[in-house]
Amino acid sequence: MLDTSIEYYKEYAQIYKQLHKELERNRIILLKKILPEILKHLVVIVILLFLAISSITLLVINESLNKTIFNSNIEILTACIAGLSTFGIFIHLSLNSEKLINKIVQTNKTFKNLLKEKFLPHLLKPFENLKTSNENIQISKLLSCELFENLQSYKTETDDCFQGSYKSLNFKIQECKILGAKNTAYFKGIIIEIDSNKSVKNTTILTSKQDLYTAKNSKVLLFLAVALLIITMISCSILCFIFNNKNAFYYAILTLIAIPTVIYNTILKIKKQNTNEKFEKLNLEDINISKKFNAYSSDQIEGRYLLTTAFIDRFNNLKTAFGTDRIKCSFYDNKLYIAISTKKDLFELGNIFKPVSNQQDVNNFYNEISAVYKIIDYLKLDDKTGI
C-alpha cells in the first residue's frame, strides 16, 4: 500500500505542478504578512540583549580592574543600561510574544487548512474508499468501550478525521486531544475505530504499562504524591524531636513502616474498585508480554480468545510504527478501538515555513495512513471467527 501510494504521487506529480505553484504563491503571501512582525520582534530582542550583555560585561571588567576603565558616574549609567535592557527584554517578551505566537499559529493553521482543502483529495486517491469526514468518533462510544474513564468531565479538541473501508471492514481515524482540569492534556494522539469482524459480546481492554493517562493510574499517582508529602512532613517532624526524645527514632521507624503499608493496601483497594467492579484482570501467558501490558475483560473466556499471544505481539509492534510507548485498545460491540498517544501532529502536509514541494511531508502522510491499513492486515481483523 505504501509503495503504491508513493509511486502514485511521483507519477502524477507533474499533473499537480500547477497546483503546487498556486499553493506556493499562497504560502509566500501569508508568510510575507507575518515576517515583518517576526523580524521586528527579533531585532528588538537582539538589540536589548546586546545592550544587556555588553553593559554587564563592562561592569564586570571594570570591577576586576579596580574601576580603572571608567569613573563612578559612568559606572552608574552602565548599570542603569544593564538593568533597563534586561527589564526591557522581560517586558517585550511579556507584552508581545504571546500575541505574535498566536498570529503565527493562526496564519500557519490557515495555510494548513488550504493545503488540506486543495491538495489532500488528490493524495487520498490511492487509498480505496478513504475520505475526510466531519463525523467524529462519538465520545459516548469511547466512554462505553472504557478506553477512557470519566470522559464526560473532560473536553475534547478534534482535528483530522478520516473514514473508509478496507477488506470489507469499515474504519475511522480521529486525531484528537482530550483536556482535563485547567486544560492539562489528558490524551493527545489518534483514536482508530475498526470493525473487528469477530463476535464480541463483552468488553476487553489491553493497555501498555507506559500509558499513565488512564483514570485508574491517575488516582494511584495522585494518592502516591499526597502520601509522599505526608511521609515527608511526618519524618521531618520526627527528626525534630530525635535530639530531645530517645524513643523518637523508634517511632520514626514504626511510622515509616506503617505508612507504606497503608499506602500499598489503599492502592490495592483503588485497583480493585476500578478494575474488578466491571472487569477481571487477565493473566497473560507470556511473561515478557505481561511486563509490557495490562489486560482486563468483563468475560475471562472471551478475553483470552481475543487477546492471544500472537495478537498482543502484533499489537506491541504498532508502537514502533507510531513512535510511542503509550498505546491501548478495547474490543467492544464487534469493533476494535485503538488509542495511540503521541506528541506529533499527524497527517500534516506541510507548514508555512516549508516549500509546498517538500517530499518528506507527503512521505510521512502516506506512512501514517498506510500504518492504519497495515493494522487490519497485521492484526488479521478481517478473519471472521467467533468463540
Describe the structure.
- Strand 3 (169-179) and strand 4 (185-195) form a beta hairpin.
- The chain has 3 domains: 17-118; 131-215 and 278-378, no CATH class; 216-273, no CATH class.
- With 387 residues, the chain is an alpha+beta fold.
- Mean pLDDT is 76; it is low at 212-218 and 272-276.
- Strands 1-2-3-4-9-8-5-7-6 form a 9-stranded antiparallel β-sheet.
- 23% of the residues are buried.
- It has helices spanning 2-12, 17-64, 72-118, 120-123, 139-144, 215-242, 248-276, 287-292, 300-306, 309-322, 359-378; strands at residues 131-132, 155-166, 169-179, 185-195, 204-208, 280-281, 293-297, 327-332, 335-341.
- The two termini are 32 Å apart.
Please give the structural blueprint.
Blueprint: H1 2-12, H2 17-64, H3 72-118, H4 120-123, E1 131-132, H5 139-144, E2 155-166, E3 169-179, E4 185-195, E5 204-208, H6 215-242, H7 248-276, E6 280-281, H8 287-292, E7 293-297, H9 300-306, H10 309-322, E8 327-332, E9 335-341, H11 359-378
Antiparallel strand pairs: 1-2, 2-3, 3-4, 4-9, 5-7, 5-8, 6-7, 8-9
DSSP strand count? 9
Largest sheet: 9 strands, antiparallel
Strand order within the widest beta sheet: 1-2-3-4-9-8-5-7-6
Question: What coarse outline follows from CA principal-axis ratios?
Answer: extended
